[in-house]
Amino acid sequence: MNALLYVAIWLSLALLALGELARSRPARTWARGASFIGWLLLVAHVLLAFEVVHGWQHSSALEATAQQTREIYGLDWGGGLYVNYAFLALWAGELWRWDAPAPSPARRLLWRGMVLILVSNGAIVFAVGWRRFLGGLITLALLWAWVRATRRAGAA
Length: 156
Description:
The chain contains 6 helices and no strands. The chain is 80% helix and 0% strand.
């Protein structure tokens, strides 16, 4: 069951990056589907973590988040758990507004900033071994997608 927990999050992040890479392309009809499946896998990851790791105890998840943050950053803070909840909601909002007119620069910056912070922390800083490399590749794919999208928007 723990393996499924990790498979869900890594596939989720890969599909997020794939959706962002394809989002700015003219033929992007499948990009929203990839991103949506990635979001569903993130939801599955959260539910599995609460079931398998935390026994449905929110206090356990808060403490584990605080401990990990303390070990990495020296800060005893479990609020990162709430940041992850906000990320779930923000990603759902991005899916909801996928075909809306171009987002405001502030909304685009909020989305990209939150994704960059959460993915780089979760997939690089808090990861171990070969998963850091995978996290780096996913982060680079996201950055490349956003650079391309910004260039295309500037050329239009």
